Amino acid sequence: MRAPWAGSAQVLDGTATAAAIKAELAQRVRALGERGVRPGLGTILVGEDPGSVRYVAGKHTDCTEVGITSIREDLPASATQAEVVAAIDRLNADPACTGYIVQLPLPAGVDASAVLERIDPDKDADGLHPTNLGRLVLRGSGPIDSPLPCTPRGCIELMTRHGIDLAGANVCVVGRGVTVGRSIGLLLGRKEVNATVDVCHTGTADLAGHVRRADIVISAAGSPGIITAEMVAPGAVVLDVGVSRVVDPDTGKARIAGDVADGVDEVASWLSPNPGGVGPMTRALLLANVVEAAERATGIRA
Ligand SMILES: Nc1nc(=O)c2c([nH]1)NC[C@@H]1CN(c3ccc(C(=O)N[C@@H](CCC(=O)O)C(=O)O)cc3)C=[N+]21
Protein backbone atom coordinates (compact mmCIF):
# COMPACT_ATOMS: atom_id res chain seq x y z
CA MET A 1 0.00 0.00 0.00
CA ARG A 2 1.23 3.46 -0.77
CA ALA A 3 1.84 5.53 2.30
CA PRO A 4 -0.65 8.41 2.44
CA TRP A 5 2.18 10.92 1.89
CA ALA A 6 3.92 9.10 -0.95
CA GLY A 7 4.65 11.32 -3.90
CA SER A 8 3.46 14.59 -2.50
CA ALA A 9 4.21 16.18 0.81
CA GLN A 10 1.51 18.44 2.21
CA VAL A 11 2.46 22.10 2.20
CA LEU A 12 3.25 23.92 5.45
CA ASP A 13 1.77 27.18 4.22
CA GLY A 14 3.67 29.97 5.98
CA THR A 15 1.96 32.75 4.04
CA ALA A 16 -1.54 31.67 5.11
CA THR A 17 -0.49 30.87 8.69
CA ALA A 18 1.26 34.23 9.03
CA ALA A 19 -1.91 35.93 7.75
CA ALA A 20 -3.93 34.16 10.46
CA ILE A 21 -1.45 35.24 13.15
CA LYS A 22 -1.52 38.82 11.87
CA ALA A 23 -5.33 38.84 12.03
CA GLU A 24 -5.14 37.69 15.68
CA LEU A 25 -2.54 40.35 16.42
CA ALA A 26 -4.69 43.05 14.81
CA GLN A 27 -7.42 42.10 17.29
CA ARG A 28 -5.01 42.43 20.21
CA VAL A 29 -3.77 45.76 18.86
CA ARG A 30 -7.39 46.97 18.88
CA ALA A 31 -7.75 45.84 22.51
CA LEU A 32 -4.62 47.79 23.40
CA GLY A 33 -6.00 50.79 21.52
CA GLU A 34 -9.05 50.76 23.78
CA ARG A 35 -6.64 51.37 26.64
CA GLY A 36 -4.91 54.13 24.75
CA VAL A 37 -1.84 52.04 23.94
CA ARG A 38 -0.42 51.60 20.44
CA PRO A 39 2.49 49.19 19.85
CA GLY A 40 5.38 50.51 17.75
CA LEU A 41 8.09 48.61 15.85
CA GLY A 42 11.41 50.33 15.33
CA THR A 43 14.05 49.29 12.80
CA ILE A 44 17.64 50.38 12.63
CA LEU A 45 18.99 49.89 9.12
CA VAL A 46 22.62 50.73 8.43
CA GLY A 47 23.54 51.09 4.74
CA GLU A 48 21.59 50.30 1.60
CA ASP A 49 22.08 46.61 0.92
CA PRO A 50 19.12 45.91 -1.43
CA GLY A 51 18.12 42.72 0.41
CA SER A 52 18.13 44.45 3.80
CA VAL A 53 16.22 47.45 2.43
CA ARG A 54 13.55 45.08 1.09
CA TYR A 55 13.26 43.09 4.31
CA VAL A 56 12.93 46.23 6.41
CA ALA A 57 10.31 47.66 4.03
CA GLY A 58 8.39 44.36 4.34
CA LYS A 59 8.41 44.62 8.14
CA HIS A 60 6.89 48.09 8.00
CA THR A 61 4.22 46.93 5.53
CA ASP A 62 3.35 44.17 8.02
CA CYS A 63 3.03 46.84 10.75
CA THR A 64 0.51 48.80 8.70
CA GLU A 65 -1.61 45.66 8.24
CA VAL A 66 -1.75 45.01 11.98
CA GLY A 67 -2.06 48.61 13.23
CA ILE A 68 1.44 48.91 14.68
CA THR A 69 3.30 52.22 14.43
CA SER A 70 6.50 52.12 12.32
CA ILE A 71 9.58 53.93 13.52
CA ARG A 72 12.57 54.00 11.20
CA GLU A 73 16.17 54.84 11.92
CA ASP A 74 17.98 54.68 8.56
CA LEU A 75 21.71 55.34 8.81
CA PRO A 76 24.29 55.60 6.01
CA ALA A 77 26.73 52.73 5.41
CA SER A 78 29.43 55.05 6.73
CA ALA A 79 27.75 55.30 10.17
CA THR A 80 30.13 54.94 13.09
CA GLN A 81 29.69 52.72 16.09
CA ALA A 82 28.79 55.82 18.13
CA GLU A 83 26.07 56.78 15.65
CA VAL A 84 24.52 53.31 15.74
CA VAL A 85 24.66 53.35 19.54
CA ALA A 86 22.97 56.77 19.54
CA ALA A 87 20.11 55.35 17.42
CA ILE A 88 19.75 52.49 19.91
CA ASP A 89 19.63 54.91 22.81
CA ARG A 90 16.91 56.93 21.05
CA LEU A 91 14.73 53.85 20.57
CA ASN A 92 15.39 52.62 24.12
CA ALA A 93 14.12 55.99 25.35
CA ASP A 94 11.21 56.39 22.89
CA PRO A 95 7.91 55.43 24.57
CA ALA A 96 6.26 55.03 21.13
CA CYS A 97 8.67 52.18 20.36
CA THR A 98 7.62 49.01 22.20
CA GLY A 99 10.03 46.77 20.29
CA TYR A 100 12.75 47.12 17.67
CA ILE A 101 15.41 45.34 15.69
CA VAL A 102 18.83 46.21 14.37
CA GLN A 103 18.82 44.76 10.86
CA LEU A 104 21.74 42.35 10.38
CA PRO A 105 24.33 42.14 9.01
CA LEU A 106 25.91 45.38 10.20
CA PRO A 107 28.78 46.88 8.16
CA ALA A 108 32.32 45.80 9.05
CA GLY A 109 33.69 48.23 11.58
CA VAL A 110 30.53 48.21 13.69
CA ASP A 111 30.83 45.79 16.62
CA ALA A 112 27.58 43.82 16.29
CA SER A 113 27.72 42.20 19.74
CA ALA A 114 28.28 45.53 21.49
CA VAL A 115 25.38 47.04 19.55
CA LEU A 116 22.96 44.16 20.16
CA GLU A 117 23.74 44.02 23.87
CA ARG A 118 22.82 47.67 24.23
CA ILE A 119 19.20 46.99 23.20
CA ASP A 120 16.78 47.23 26.14
CA PRO A 121 15.93 43.51 26.63
CA ASP A 122 12.25 44.41 27.13
CA LYS A 123 12.25 46.01 23.64
CA ASP A 124 14.21 43.20 21.96
CA ALA A 125 11.85 42.28 19.09
CA ASP A 126 14.24 39.62 17.73
CA GLY A 127 14.36 37.81 21.09
CA LEU A 128 18.11 37.36 20.67
CA HIS A 129 19.46 39.64 23.41
CA PRO A 130 21.68 37.70 25.86
CA THR A 131 19.22 38.44 28.66
CA ASN A 132 16.34 36.90 26.70
CA LEU A 133 18.34 33.88 25.52
CA GLY A 134 19.41 33.51 29.16
CA ARG A 135 15.79 33.58 30.34
CA LEU A 136 15.05 30.78 27.86
CA VAL A 137 17.79 28.68 29.40
CA LEU A 138 17.21 29.56 33.04
CA ARG A 139 13.42 29.68 33.32
CA GLY A 140 11.95 26.23 33.77
CA SER A 141 8.70 24.89 32.38
CA GLY A 142 5.70 27.12 31.90
CA PRO A 143 5.17 30.34 30.00
CA ILE A 144 8.24 32.47 29.38
CA ASP A 145 7.39 36.09 29.94
CA SER A 146 10.03 37.51 27.61
CA PRO A 147 10.53 37.94 23.86
CA LEU A 148 11.30 34.68 22.03
CA PRO A 149 13.49 34.27 18.94
CA CYS A 150 11.22 34.88 15.94
CA THR A 151 12.30 32.18 13.47
CA PRO A 152 12.38 29.36 16.05
CA ARG A 153 8.98 30.41 17.33
CA GLY A 154 7.76 30.67 13.73
CA CYS A 155 8.90 27.11 12.98
CA ILE A 156 7.04 25.76 16.00
CA GLU A 157 3.85 27.72 15.26
CA LEU A 158 3.97 26.64 11.62
CA MET A 159 3.93 22.99 12.69
CA THR A 160 1.48 23.17 15.60
CA ARG A 161 -1.01 25.19 13.54
CA HIS A 162 -0.94 22.39 10.94
CA GLY A 163 -1.73 19.82 13.63
CA ILE A 164 1.79 18.39 13.92
CA ASP A 165 2.52 17.07 17.40
CA LEU A 166 5.98 17.90 18.72
CA ALA A 167 5.82 16.09 22.07
CA GLY A 168 8.16 13.12 21.96
CA ALA A 169 9.29 13.87 18.41
CA ASN A 170 12.93 13.43 17.41
CA VAL A 171 13.97 16.69 15.76
CA CYS A 172 17.13 17.08 13.72
CA VAL A 173 18.21 20.72 13.42
CA VAL A 174 20.86 21.38 10.77
CA GLY A 175 22.90 24.52 11.42
CA ARG A 176 24.14 26.20 14.59
CA GLY A 177 23.70 29.87 13.75
CA VAL A 178 22.40 31.96 16.64
CA THR A 179 19.21 33.18 14.91
CA VAL A 180 17.91 29.66 14.23
CA GLY A 181 19.91 26.51 14.93
CA ARG A 182 21.31 27.31 18.30
CA SER A 183 18.25 29.02 19.70
CA ILE A 184 15.58 26.64 18.35
CA GLY A 185 17.06 23.79 20.38
CA LEU A 186 16.40 25.81 23.54
CA LEU A 187 12.71 26.16 22.67
CA LEU A 188 12.06 22.65 21.35
CA GLY A 189 13.57 20.99 24.41
CA ARG A 190 11.43 22.91 26.89
CA LYS A 191 8.87 20.86 28.76
CA GLU A 192 5.86 22.61 27.14
CA VAL A 193 7.14 21.40 23.73
CA ASN A 194 8.89 18.20 24.82
CA ALA A 195 10.76 17.38 21.64
CA THR A 196 14.19 15.73 21.64
CA VAL A 197 16.70 17.78 19.69
CA ASP A 198 19.81 16.91 17.77
CA VAL A 199 21.79 19.93 16.46
CA CYS A 200 24.03 19.09 13.49
CA HIS A 201 26.68 21.36 11.97
CA THR A 202 29.70 21.31 9.67
CA GLY A 203 31.59 19.18 12.20
CA THR A 204 28.90 16.46 12.30
CA ALA A 205 30.44 13.12 11.32
CA ASP A 206 27.37 11.54 9.72
CA LEU A 207 24.77 14.16 8.81
CA ALA A 208 22.70 11.71 6.75
CA GLY A 209 22.52 9.32 9.72
CA HIS A 210 21.18 12.05 12.01
CA VAL A 211 18.65 13.30 9.45
CA ARG A 212 17.43 9.77 8.75
CA ARG A 213 16.52 9.17 12.40
CA ALA A 214 14.43 12.35 12.64
CA ASP A 215 10.66 12.68 12.67
CA ILE A 216 11.17 16.38 11.99
CA VAL A 217 14.06 17.98 10.07
CA ILE A 218 14.64 21.73 10.45
CA SER A 219 17.37 22.84 8.09
CA ALA A 220 18.90 26.26 8.71
CA ALA A 221 22.33 25.66 7.23
CA GLY A 222 22.23 28.15 4.36
CA SER A 223 23.70 25.48 2.12
CA PRO A 224 21.59 24.97 -1.02
CA GLY A 225 20.29 21.43 -1.46
CA ILE A 226 22.11 19.99 1.58
CA ILE A 227 19.02 17.96 2.58
CA THR A 228 18.38 15.31 -0.07
CA ALA A 229 15.53 12.82 -0.51
CA GLU A 230 17.87 9.91 0.29
CA MET A 231 18.57 11.37 3.74
CA VAL A 232 14.96 11.93 4.82
CA ALA A 233 12.91 9.19 6.50
CA PRO A 234 9.63 8.49 4.64
CA GLY A 235 6.87 10.50 6.30
CA ALA A 236 9.17 12.96 8.06
CA VAL A 237 8.24 16.64 8.41
CA VAL A 238 10.78 18.94 6.74
CA LEU A 239 11.19 22.68 7.34
CA ASP A 240 13.38 24.53 4.85
CA VAL A 241 14.72 27.57 6.72
CA GLY A 242 18.00 28.24 4.87
CA VAL A 243 18.14 31.17 2.49
CA SER A 244 20.96 31.43 -0.05
CA ARG A 245 21.25 33.66 -3.07
CA VAL A 246 22.27 31.61 -6.11
CA VAL A 247 22.46 32.16 -9.86
CA ASP A 248 20.09 29.82 -11.69
CA PRO A 249 22.18 28.00 -14.33
CA ASP A 250 19.18 27.77 -16.68
CA THR A 251 18.04 31.39 -16.60
CA GLY A 252 21.27 33.13 -15.50
CA LYS A 253 19.17 35.06 -12.98
CA ALA A 254 19.78 35.34 -9.24
CA ARG A 255 17.21 33.57 -7.10
CA ILE A 256 16.70 32.37 -3.52
CA ALA A 257 17.62 28.74 -2.87
CA GLY A 258 16.66 26.81 0.23
CA ASP A 259 18.52 23.96 1.96
CA VAL A 260 16.10 21.30 0.72
CA ALA A 261 16.85 19.56 -2.60
CA ASP A 262 14.27 18.65 -5.22
CA GLY A 263 12.72 15.27 -4.51
CA VAL A 264 12.32 15.69 -0.74
CA ASP A 265 8.66 16.44 -1.41
CA GLU A 266 8.36 12.85 -2.67
CA VAL A 267 9.44 11.47 0.71
CA ALA A 268 8.29 13.95 3.37
CA SER A 269 4.77 14.03 4.82
CA TRP A 270 4.91 17.82 5.26
CA LEU A 271 7.30 20.31 3.68
CA SER A 272 7.61 24.06 4.14
CA PRO A 273 8.09 25.85 0.82
CA ASN A 274 10.86 28.42 0.52
CA PRO A 275 9.84 31.16 -0.12
CA GLY A 276 6.36 31.05 1.41
CA GLY A 277 7.22 28.96 4.48
CA VAL A 278 9.24 30.02 7.49
CA GLY A 279 10.10 33.54 6.18
CA PRO A 280 6.57 34.99 6.54
CA MET A 281 6.28 33.26 9.94
CA THR A 282 9.44 34.99 11.16
CA ARG A 283 7.92 38.32 10.24
CA ALA A 284 4.59 37.55 11.92
CA LEU A 285 6.29 36.55 15.18
CA LEU A 286 8.42 39.68 15.12
CA LEU A 287 5.12 41.56 15.28
CA ALA A 288 3.96 39.26 18.08
CA ASN A 289 7.01 40.21 20.14
CA VAL A 290 6.20 43.90 19.64
CA VAL A 291 2.53 43.48 20.60
CA GLU A 292 3.39 41.31 23.61
CA ALA A 293 5.93 43.86 24.84
CA ALA A 294 3.17 46.50 24.73
CA GLU A 295 0.79 44.13 26.53
CA ARG A 296 3.35 43.54 29.28
CA ALA A 297 4.01 47.24 29.67
CA THR A 298 0.24 47.78 29.98
CA GLY A 299 -0.24 44.96 32.46
CA ILE A 300 -2.58 43.01 30.13
CA ARG A 301 -0.05 40.22 29.96
CA ALA A 302 1.11 38.65 33.19
N1 LIG B 1 17.89 41.73 13.25
C1 LIG B 1 17.53 40.93 12.26
N2 LIG B 1 16.43 40.13 12.43
C2 LIG B 1 16.03 39.31 11.42
O1 LIG B 1 15.04 38.56 11.59
C3 LIG B 1 16.76 39.30 10.19
C4 LIG B 1 17.88 40.15 10.07
N3 LIG B 1 18.23 40.94 11.12
N4 LIG B 1 18.59 40.17 8.93
C5 LIG B 1 18.22 39.40 7.77
C6 LIG B 1 17.43 38.16 8.13
C7 LIG B 1 16.60 37.59 7.00
N5 LIG B 1 15.22 37.60 7.47
C8 LIG B 1 14.10 37.26 6.72
C9 LIG B 1 12.82 37.31 7.21
C10 LIG B 1 11.73 37.04 6.43
C11 LIG B 1 11.88 36.69 5.11
C12 LIG B 1 10.70 36.44 4.27
O2 LIG B 1 9.58 36.71 4.64
N6 LIG B 1 10.88 35.92 3.05
C13 LIG B 1 9.82 35.67 2.11
C14 LIG B 1 10.24 36.17 0.75
C15 LIG B 1 10.39 37.67 0.76
C16 LIG B 1 11.10 38.18 -0.48
O3 LIG B 1 12.35 38.22 -0.45
O4 LIG B 1 10.41 38.51 -1.43
C17 LIG B 1 9.49 34.20 2.08
O5 LIG B 1 10.28 33.41 2.61
O6 LIG B 1 8.46 33.86 1.56
C18 LIG B 1 13.15 36.61 4.59
C19 LIG B 1 14.26 36.89 5.41
C20 LIG B 1 15.19 38.16 8.71
N7 LIG B 1 16.41 38.49 9.13
From TrEMBL:
It comes from the Bacteria. GO terms for biological process: L-histidine biosynthetic process; methionine biosynthetic process; purine nucleotide biosynthetic process; tetrahydrofolate interconversion. Its EC number is 1.5.1.5, 3.5.4.9. Residues 149-297 form the Tetrahydrofolate dehydrogenase/cyclohydrolase NAD(P)-binding domain. Pathway: One-carbon metabolism; tetrahydrofolate interconversion. InterPro entries: Aminoacid_DH-like_N_sf (IPR046346), NAD(P)-bd_dom_sf (IPR036291), THF_DH/CycHdrlase (IPR000672), THF_DH/CycHdrlase_cat_dom (IPR020630), THF_DH/CycHdrlase_NAD-bd_dom (IPR020631). The keyword Oxidoreductase applies. Residues 12-126 form the Tetrahydrofolate dehydrogenase/cyclohydrolase catalytic domain. It catalyses: (6R)-5,10-methenyltetrahydrofolate + H2O = (6R)-10-formyltetrahydrofolate + H(+); (6R)-5,10-methylene-5,6,7,8-tetrahydrofolate + NADP(+) = (6R)-5,10-methenyltetrahydrofolate + NADPH. GO terms for molecular function: methenyltetrahydrofolate cyclohydrolase activity; methylenetetrahydrofolate dehydrogenase (NADP+) activity. NADP(+) binds at residues 175-177, 243. GO terms for cellular component: cytosol. Keywords: Amino-acid biosynthesis, Histidine biosynthesis, Hydrolase, Methionine biosynthesis, Multifunctional enzyme, NADP, One-carbon metabolism, Oxidoreductase, Purine biosynthesis. The keyword Transmembrane does not apply. Homodimer. Catalyzes the oxidation of 5,10-methylenetetrahydrofolate to 5,10-methenyltetrahydrofolate and then the hydrolysis of 5,10-methenyltetrahydrofolate to 10-formyltetrahydrofolate. HAMAP family: THF_DHG_CYH (MF_01576). NCBIfam families: PRK14193.1 (NF010789). PANTHER family: C-1-TETRAHYDROFOLATE SYNTHASE, CYTOPLASMIC, C-1-TETRAHYDROFOLATE SYNTHASE, CYTOPLASMIC-RELATED. Belongs to the tetrahydrofolate dehydrogenase/cyclohydrolase family. This is Bifunctional protein FolD. It comes from Actinomyces slackii. The lineage of its organism: Bacteria, Bacillati, Actinomycetota, Actinomycetes, Actinomycetales.
